[in-house]
Amino acid sequence: MHSDTRAPLGLKLSAIGGLIFLLAPIALIFVYAFTTEEKSFQWPPPGLTTKWIGVTLGRADVWEALGLSLKVAAISTTLALIMGTLTAAAVARSRFFGRETISLLVILPIALPGIITGISLRSAFSLLDIPFSTWTIVLGHATFCIVIVYNNAVARFRRTSGALIDAAMDLGADGVQTFTLVILPNIATALLAGGMLAFALSFDEVIVTTFTAGNQTTLPIWMLEELVRPRQRPVTNVVAMAVVLVTVLPILAAYYLTRDGEHTAGSDK
Q1: How far apart are CA 168 and CA 179, in angstroms?
Q2: Measuring CA to CA, which residue among 53, 18, 49 is closest to residue 36?
Q3: Which of the two residues, 8 and 202, has the higher pLDDT score?
Q4: Of the candidates 7, 91, 99, 155, which lies 20 to 30 Å from 27 by C-alpha distance?
Q5: Residue range 60-229 in CATH 1.10.10.10
Q6: Any idea what the Cα angle at residue 232 is, between residues 227 and 233, rounded to 5°?
């Protein structure tokens, strides 16, 4: 006798309604990226055209903002991978006084409102007479990128059996060999997923960037300024469409990389 596991019709309709509510505004961005109307948002669009993609590609200010965003995201992700992995290894594989406090302090930045982080960083930079630069943006983004990598890495470290490391050491492997041949293969997908998520979050971050960028303009800040003082509205939508693709694809890749994370070598020992 088999039980009916099909979802009730009301639950299905609720799920569909929720998805429409979440995705319809994003779909509008894609539609308005191809509208023939330049100065306002009309529904339905009076016509469709691809000319705004060419216009966007010809805008130097878009390329400058994109370059800065990619640079900041790449550096922030690299720092997060190094510091997040080392911190996760220390917390997951060692026992010492204050370990849980350190873990809490590491994840605190992502729990705090972004405006609090931004104000605190701006105050610190002003107090230390640090001029605004690419590195001030990187430091701001690294505060939450480290958390993303840390959470992925520490979970994978805890699922990796310590017996594997002990066995490698017993067989004569030194610390570097143990890390590269035993530990890294087991945590590689978690690090890759954490790095992709960190890159996506850094690439489209606005609030912390507003307080740490000074006169510099990342792509999300450029979009915000264009909405306030629009020159060509569809160009903003073309850029927004690109940002959606750049951020969604790493998130989807991270999901597929980590969904089988429970099958870590030695995790059932």
Answers
A1: 10
A2: 49
A3: 202
A4: 7
A5: no
A6: 50
Report the predicted TM-score, pTM, of the whole model to 2 decimal places.
0.76
Chain mean position to CA 8: 35
In angstroms and rounded to an integer, the radius of gyration of the C-alpha atoms of the chain is: 23
Cis peptide before 230 (omega within 30 of 0): no
The H helix count followed by the E strand count for the chain is 12, 0
Which of 52-70 are b and which e, b meaning 16 or more Cβ less than 10 Å from the residue's Cβ? bbeebeebeebeebbebbb
- Name the maximum alpha-carbon separation found in the chain: 74
More confident residue, 164 or 219: 219
3-state class (DSSP) for residue 48:
strand
Would the pLDDT of 266 be above 60?
no
Length of the chain: 269
Q: d(Cα 203, Cα 250) in Å, to the nearest integer?
A: 11
Q: What is the mean pLDDT of residues 128-141?
A: 87
Q: So where are the chain's domains?
A: 60-229
Average pLDDT score over residue span 144-148 = 87
223: helix, strand or coil: helix
Side chain identity at residue 92, one-letter code:
A
For residues 265 and 269, give the distance between their C-alpha atoms in angstroms, rounded to a whole number.
9
